[in-house]
Amino acid sequence: MNLMEHQMLLSMKFFNSEIIRFIVSGSINTFLTYLIYLFFLSLMPYGLSFSLTYIIGIYISYYLNCLIVFNEKPRWRTALKYPIVYFVQYIIGIFLLYFLVHYGVSEFLAPLVVIVFTLPATFFLSRWIIKKI
Hints:
Elements: H1 3-15, H2 18-41, H3 46-69, H4 76-81, H5 83-102, H6 110-131
């Protein structure tokens, strides 16, 4: 195998890895939930908008992670445990959101900053619950 083939094989493995699929599915989930957040924001305060969107995002995330990221069939047992991951993320997220908005970050931008800070823990906890590792 020459160098070019080896690099191509490595890049294929990288793009097929769980972490890349997690980032892609997370991006899809982020896009969808951000649109939902903006819709709710037109109807209610940012804290309530964030909370409702967060709950909806858990279910979107669970199915995307099962089907796309970890290639696992969705199961009631893991579906019931999965919100634990996001409960921890939510507690961190709502306090960080409040902090960011309170100190001048736009309420439109703040949820995106929250995601960046909570993403690594979410991946590992999701993997642990869904794949039973």
